[in-house]
């Protein structure tokens, strides 16, 4: 038999190809470099290279299973940014934690590639594989401090619950396949446009919803997040709190806006419920926390609740507000984690008492990130929330916005508590820091962007 | 009539084995029962004209994954396991929720109507042999996911090595 | 003009540098940064002034922050004649006060903090006057208020200082509440916050009414009065004047800059800026004129009997601000702003002079304990004297021209105008009297303080006297830009303002103008003569007078019992209610329940939720399964409907 | 001919059994096996769909699912081994360091 294999057009997938091949090469190079820092710098370079390819990678390829459009490009930009910043804050940290494996950087790259595939997937099979590529890499990353029982615990919890949620996802996808006879998201959309809703369709949709709500850590599927975030190495926590969440949102946006677009009446009420519950759980539980990583985990849950509003409103403004929020969240959250890594102290909130006296600059940075997370102008966090809530109000969800603003006010309590601890309390002992050039660079980038976006929102809006 | 009986036999055995697997106290028994289960599933695949998948099911699942499970179980302390509780204290809640979900799912799939038919009719596949037809789809239409799957396997290797290998004395 | 954007930015940069690096690196050199910043602003402001005089104006958005439908939050600059004069006032006074503070604040623990606040204040004030939209004005408005609050309470370890700061803050809330409402109404009615767009659409408001408590209120009047509420608070007019005298607890340079020359005049600036709106409502204009007139009289009479030198100057400020509103109220916005401008120089001079006296007297403020300071501190004396002549309205000095312009305009302004003219003339005489009371009591005669104080008497350092001398030049010459035609000038400043502020109709002839001028000058001279009689020729006379008019003296001494009145009708009831409720319900724990209950309830709820987060991953799995069950149920129910 | 819905029913039941096993069994290895059970139920329905829809996609998907399942099991067991080295625990209620 003479099979004529047409060579696929690689251009649209260039960023992914760059990342994956570089990650594979880095696995080999790891054997030759004693100093793992080289790999880190290589990773940053590769991310930059991929970022360079991202804007020119528009188009469909691989039998229409891969679709690179403006939507996915925004997300890829966020993923690559997340990757770069994570590597920057990791370099010193992994050395300090004695977990300096060369594979670490490759795995970060693989995970990012998985996220990028998710954002670009036009076929449910590619979507699932991208998701697993991301998930499996992050499981390993969460457990990479293998001599630390907490890291092991985080990894096993993440893996088991992640596996459980993928099984739920697969069940939903299999039903969807049976119902429509296809796995192509756009064909599914066409099919539903003519067939309308039915009970099995709704069921398949809910299984998929549950699985992705797990990935974005929305309540009641959120419970893994605090434990995993607390136990994982801090740099990985920073990576996880943004990347998989953003990827989850990328898929939610794609699936709900394309495949299930004609079924809005069925999924909107469910997502509203999840969003409110998520905001409530995230914000209320964050108040009671004593560990800052754990607090940020709950805060990240709460932020997922806000972002879901962007999906709910059902307009393109809502979706773009959600993407903008993710980008802003990337900067402010990464900044906060960079500060945590910078400090030699533990992760307890009371360790931050009197920080302003011993490390005024660090305290100032943390102050800005906390303000931004709260959403106080002129920081980027305010712009993100404003944008998101405005889109919701315009779409007629004023009541939802009122709830969100209320929870946002609650959130001020726990973010500003950190600020209060730093500025109002006396220090128990002198705080020391371990600065490194890359960490400083990450902090500089994040703080600059938090202010730049806050002062010039037109950078990201529109 | 015969196909129905065939299906019913498999359905009953598969369900029964599933229950057996999750109720065994000794994990080794669970694994062995699972082996039997996989053979039944493979035979169901045969019944559904998926010969290649039946083979994969046996070779990969039964041959590789289950053996991996067995290896790990052997490393752990079985004696301790035999005296421990098999379930968490809240197991009735878990079972209740599970059964509730099942009720809803059964309710949901009651109105199931499958989508439009594809090209690969049984006759067409028979003419080409299943493996070849599947292979062509896999390597032509699904080449891209196939590549991703290869990366996933690579990650599994890397992960297993990173997490499970013995450290050198230097700790590097 | 093209560099105008730098005017506010330079002080902002100075502020940022000082606040970030002041504590550890700059320390006692903080003044260099601040002075350089504001000096740069001053130079550009002068350039801008020249450009404006050449006929160039500017109105453009520099930066749009948020645009959402009609709602646009932007930073934009509008530079016209009104702004230009404000820029000159703010930057020049600020520069001089900065220099003065180098001497005055020398050795203070919060040196860098003080200068960074000053820079921040200057920045906010400049943003306020340069803005081309209401929102920017409003932010500037609140920002200067905040800076003033910080600076009044600068010595926060002093209880009276922090109390005064709080008082200023709370009293201003009342005014700002109205102001905020006014801004909102304007936006709702006209859909824009930009001055030019508002003024262009003002006609649509004409004749519209709004029902409040069953009464139909004219919309224009309502908005104008709401905006005026803000001005009343910020510019310390009746009945919200009580915070300004107390604000004297702050460092004296602050009083000169914020509480005499710039921030308190923001109200006048705002009314002048919104002159198209105010001019549309007869009622509002009359309210403004009468409030101004009454305040000026009222504050001047209080100043007659006070002994605290800074408080006298403070009441005099309140009184002069009243003058400016009086002018605006009769439609003579140009005259009002002219007075604002001259007042800035002589009043800043008076404050800085008072500061110089305090400096010499080791913080003593009571003029009864001074006397004969003339020979110890000649520079302070002479400059203080010039300022007093200026404020008294002696011909040829700055105060004379602006005051005369106001009185003349008031005289032309209908029967309300006539009333306020009478008040104004009377106030002019009283002002002359109390100003010279200070001069005679403090600088003439013999020293009445302790020996140590006398021993310590000295002239202030150069950093303080040089600004005094410069300001003295201003107190003399600032008015020369507005010499009226009747005196052979051509009222340059009046014509300068015409494009923005218009020019009120003048019905009276030159004879009448001469008469008005003569009356006020006679009043002023009489006032000075009387002060000379009372405090130099026959020092027993004041005591006798005090005994004869004992009742009235008491009223004045107690500042018309305003503080007591507020204490009685607002503070005490508020406290009483709070206490009564507290005591009444302590047993029931209702208050405690509400106050602590909400946060506690949330936290308690959180604690309970935390229990669910047990650490056992199977509980999490149950949660996931339950969530799946839940959303399936919801979706099935929703789909079934 | 066996109706398609029977297969779906079978798959649903096996799926839920796997789910219950995952939720209630304390032993992590059994939990991993429960996940395999759930994946197999999905595979059954996919193959059935594939057969009834006369479309290969379902079967291709099954191949990928098996691949991923193998990778996941490998990584899961590797993590378990790492955990076991630090603390000989294979039960979920023995690893509750982090909570709240």
Write structural notes for this entry:
The complex is a heterotetramer of chains A (462), B (172), C (641) and D (100). Chain B contains eight helices and no strands. Chain B is mainly alpha-helical. Chain B has a domain at 1-83: Up-down Bundle (Four Helix Bundle (Hemerythrin (Met), subunit A)), CATH 1.20.120. With 641 residues, chain C is mainly α. Chain C has helices at residues 6-26, 30-53, 81-104, 111-130, 134-152, 159-190, 195-201, 219-234, 243-246, 252-261, 266-273, 275-279, 282-305, 309-329, 333-360, 378-392, 398-411, 414-443, 451-456, 462-477, 492-501, 510-537, 541-548, 550-557, 562-586, 590-612, 617-640; strands spanning 58-68, 71-79, 209-212, 215-218. In chain C, helix 2 runs antiparallel to helix 3, helix 13 (282-305) runs parallel beside helix 18 (414-443) and helix 14 (309-329) runs antiparallel to helix 15 (333-360). Chain C is globular and about 100 Å long. Helix content of chain D is 77%, strand content 0%. In chain D, helix 1 (4-24) runs antiparallel to helix 2 (28-53) and helix 2 runs antiparallel to helix 3 (57-86). Chain D is elongated. Classes of the chains: A mainly alpha (462), B mainly alpha (172), C mainly alpha (641), D mainly alpha (100). At the C-D interface, helix 27 of C face helix 1 of D.
Please give the radius of gyration of chain D in angstroms.
Answer: 17 Å
CATH topology annotation of one domain in chain B: Four Helix Bundle (Hemerythrin (Met), subunit A)
What would the principal axes of the Cα set say about the shape of chain B? globular
Distance between the termini of chain B: 65 Å
CATH H-level superfamily of one domain in chain B: NADH-ubiquinone/plastoquinone oxidoreductase chain 6, subunit NuoJ
**What percent strand of chain D?**
under 5%
| CATH class bucket of one domain in chain B | Mainly Alpha
> What's the mean pLDDT score of chain D?
91
Q: Can you give the mean pLDDT of chain B?
A: 86
Q: Biggest sheet of chain D: strands, sense, closure?
A: none
Judged by helices, strands and strand pairing, the structural class of chain D is mainly alpha
Count the E strands of chain D.
0
Strand portion of chain B: under 5%
**Given the helix and strand composition of chain B, which structural class is it?**
mainly alpha
What overall form of chain D do the CA principal axes indicate? elongated
Distance between the first and last residues' Cα of chain D:
54 Å
State the assembly state of the protein chains: heterotetramer
Elements of chain B, N to C (H/E): HHHHHHHH
Order of helices and strands of chain D: HHH
Q: What is Rg of chain B?
A: 21 Å
């Amino acid at each position: 038999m003479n099979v004529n294999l047409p060579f696929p057009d690689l251009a649209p997938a260039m960023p992914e190809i760059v990342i994956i091949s570089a990650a594979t090469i880095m696995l080999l190079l790891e054997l030759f470099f004693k100093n793992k820092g080289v790999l880190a710098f290589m990773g940053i370079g590769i991310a930059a290279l991929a970022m360079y390819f991202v804007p020119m990678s528009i188009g469909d390829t691989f039998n229409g299973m891969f679709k690179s459009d403006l939507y996915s490009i925004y997300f890829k930009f966020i993923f690559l940014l997340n990757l770069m910043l994570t590597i920057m804050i990791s370099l010193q940290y992994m050395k300090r934690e004695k977990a300096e494996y060369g594979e670490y950087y490759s795995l970060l790259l693989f995970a990012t590639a998985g996220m990028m595939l998710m954002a670009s997937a036009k076929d449910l099979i590619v979507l699932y594989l991208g998701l697993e590529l991301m998930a499996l890499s992050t499981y390993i990353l969460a457990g990479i401090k293998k001599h630390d029982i907490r890291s092991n615990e985080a990894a096993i919890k993440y893996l088991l619950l992640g596996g459980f949620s993928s099984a739920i996802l697969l069940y939903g996808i299999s039903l969807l396949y049976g119902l429509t006879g296809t796995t192509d998201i756009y064909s599914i959309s066409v099919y539903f446009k003519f067939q309308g809703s039915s009970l099995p369709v709704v069921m398949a949709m809910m299984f998929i919803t549950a699985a992705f709500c797990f990935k974005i850590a929305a309540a009641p599927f959120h419970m893994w997040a605090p434990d995993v975030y607390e136990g994982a190495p801090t740099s990985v926590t920073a990576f996880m709190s943004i990347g998989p969440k953003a990827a989850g949102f990328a898929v939610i946006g794609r699936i709900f806006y394309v495949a299930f677009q004609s079924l809005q009446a069925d999924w909107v009420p469910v997502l509203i419920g999840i969003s409110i519950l998520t905001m409530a759980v995230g914000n209320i539980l964050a108040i009671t926390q004593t560990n800052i990583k754990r607090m940020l985990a709950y805060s990240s849950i709460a932020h997922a609740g806000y972002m879901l509003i962007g999906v709910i409103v059902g307009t393109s403004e809502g979706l773009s507000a959600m993407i903008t929020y993710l980008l802003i969240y990337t900067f402010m959250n990464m900044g906060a984690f960079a500060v945590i890594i910078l400090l030699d102290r533990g992760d307890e909130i009371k360790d931050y008492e009197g920080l302003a006296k011993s490390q005024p600059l660090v305290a100032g940075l943390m102050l800005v990130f906390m303000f931004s997370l709260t959403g106080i102008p002129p920081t980027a966090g305010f712009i993100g929330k404003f944008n998101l809530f405005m889109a919701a109000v315009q779409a007629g969800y004023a009541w939802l916005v009122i709830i969100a603003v209320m929870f946002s006010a609650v959130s001020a309590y726990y973010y500003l508590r950190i600020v209060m601890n730093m500025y109002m309390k006396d220090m128990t002992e002198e705080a020391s820091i371990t600065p490194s050039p890359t960490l400083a660079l990450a902090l500089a980038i994040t703080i600059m962007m938090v202010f730049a976006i806050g002062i010039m929102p037109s950078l990201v809006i529109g | 009539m015969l196909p129905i009986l065939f299906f019913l036999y498999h359905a009953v055995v598969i369900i029964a084995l599933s229950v057996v697997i999750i109720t065994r106290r000794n994990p080794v028994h669970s694994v062995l029962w699972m082996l039997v289960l996989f053979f039944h599933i493979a035979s169901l695949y045969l019944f559904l004209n998926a010969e290649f998948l039946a083979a994969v099911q046996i070779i990969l699942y039964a041959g590789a994954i289950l053996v991996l499970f067995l290896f790990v179980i052997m490393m752990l302390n079985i004696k301790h396991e035999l005296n421990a509780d098999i379930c968490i204290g809240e197991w009735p809640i878990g079972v209740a929720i599970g059964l509730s979900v099942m009720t809803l799912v059964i309710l949901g799939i009651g109105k199931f109507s499958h989508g439009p038919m594809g090209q690969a009719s049984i006759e067409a596949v028979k003419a080409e042999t299943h493996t070849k037809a599947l292979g062509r789809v896999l390597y032509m239409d699904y080449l891209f996911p196939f590549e991703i799957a290869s990366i996933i396997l690579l990650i599994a290797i890397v992960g297993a090595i990173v997490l499970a290998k013995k450290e050198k004395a230097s700790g590097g | 003009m093209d560099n105008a954007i730098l005017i506010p930015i330079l002080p902002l940069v100075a502020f940022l540098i000082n606040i970030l690096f002041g504590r550890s690196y700059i320390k006692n050199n903080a003044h260099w940064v601040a002075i350089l910043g504001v000096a740069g602003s001053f130079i550009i402001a002068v350039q801008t002034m020249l450009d404006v005089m050449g006929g160039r104006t500017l109105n453009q958005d520099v930066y749009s922050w948020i645009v959402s439908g009609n709602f646009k939050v932007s930073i934009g600059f509008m530079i016209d004649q009104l702004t230009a004069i404000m820029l000159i006032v703010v930057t020049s006074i600020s520069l001089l006060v900065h220099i003065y503070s180098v001497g005055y604040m020398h050795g203070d623990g919060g040196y860098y903090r003080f200068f960074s606040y000053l820079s921040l204040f200057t920045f906010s004030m400049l943003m306020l006057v340069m803005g081309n939209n209401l929102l920017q004005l409003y932010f500037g408005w609140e920002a200067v208020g905040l800076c003033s609050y910080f600076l009044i309470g600068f010595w926060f370890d002093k209880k009276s200082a922090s109390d005064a700061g709080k008082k200023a803050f709370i009293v201003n809330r009342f005014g700002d509440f109205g102001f905020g409402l006014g801004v909102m109404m304007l936006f709702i009615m006209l859909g824009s916050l930009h001055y030019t767009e508002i003024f262009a659409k003002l006609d649509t408001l004409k004749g519209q009414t709004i029902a409040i408590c069953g009464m139909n209120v004219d919309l224009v009047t309502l908005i104008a009065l709401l905006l005026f509420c803000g001005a009343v608070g910020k510019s310390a007019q009746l009945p919200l004047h009580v915070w300004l005298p107390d604000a004297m607890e702050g460092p004296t340079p602050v009083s000169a800059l914020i509480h005499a020359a710039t921030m308190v005049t923001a109200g006048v600036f705002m009314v002048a800026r919104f002159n198209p709106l105010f001019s549309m409502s007869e009622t509002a204009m009359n309210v403004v004129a009468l409030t101004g007139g009454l305040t000026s009289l009222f504050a001047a009479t209080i100043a007659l009997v006070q002994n605290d030198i800074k408080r006298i100057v403070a009441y005099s400020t309140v009184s002069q601000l009243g003058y400016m509103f009086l002018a605006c109220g009769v439609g003579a916005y140009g005259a009002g702003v002219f007075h604002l401008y001259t007042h800035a120089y002589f009043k800043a001079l008076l404050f800085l002079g008072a500061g110089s006296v305090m400096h010499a007297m080791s913080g003593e403020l009571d003029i009864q304990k001074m006397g004969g300071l003339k020979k110890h501190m000649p520079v302070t004396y002479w400059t203080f004297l010039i300022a007093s002549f200026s404020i008294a309205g002696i011909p040829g000095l700055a105060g004379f021209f602006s005051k005369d312009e106001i009185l003349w305009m008031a005289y032309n302004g209908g029967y309300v105008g006539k009333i306020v003219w009478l008040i104004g003339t009377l106030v002019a005489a009283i002002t002359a009297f109390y100003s010279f009371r200070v001069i005679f009591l403090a600088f003439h005669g013999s020293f009445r303080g302790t020996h140590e104080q006398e021993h310590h008497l000295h002239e202030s350092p150069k950093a303080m006297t040089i600004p005094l001398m410069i300001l003295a030049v201003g107190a003399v010459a600032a008015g020369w830009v507005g010499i009226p035609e009747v005196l052979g000038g051509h009222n340059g400043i009046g014509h300068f303002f015409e494009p923005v502020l218009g020019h009120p109709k003048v019905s009276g002839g030159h004879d009448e103008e001469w008469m008005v001028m003569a009356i006020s000058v006679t009043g002023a001279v009489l006032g000075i003569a009387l002060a000379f009689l009372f405090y130099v020729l026959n020092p027993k006379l004041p005591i006798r007078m005090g005994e004869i008019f004992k009742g009235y003296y008491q009223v004045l001494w107690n500042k018309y019992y305003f503080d007591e009145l507020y204490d009685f009708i607002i503070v005490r009831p508020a406290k009483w209610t709070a206490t009564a409720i507290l005591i009444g319900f302590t047993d029931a724990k209702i208050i405690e329940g509400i106050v602590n209950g909400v946060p506690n309830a949330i936290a308690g709820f959180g604690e309970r939720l935390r229990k669910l987060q047990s650490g056992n991953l199977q509980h999490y799995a149950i949660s996931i399964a339950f969530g799946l069950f839940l959303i399936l149920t919801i979706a099935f129910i929703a789909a079934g409907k | 001919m066996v109706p398609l819905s029977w297969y779906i029913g079978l798959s649903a039941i096996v799926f839920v059994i796997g789910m219950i096993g995952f939720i209630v069994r304390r032993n992590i290895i059994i939990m991993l096996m429960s996940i395999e059970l759930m994946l197999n139920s999905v595979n059954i329905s996919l193959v059935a769909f594939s057969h009834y829809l006369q479309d290969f996609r379902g079967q291709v998907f099954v191949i990928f699912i098996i691949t991923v399942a193998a990778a996941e099991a490998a990584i899961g067991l590797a993590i378990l081994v790492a955990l076991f080295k630090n603390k000989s625990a294979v039960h979920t209620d023995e690893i509750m360091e982090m909570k709240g």
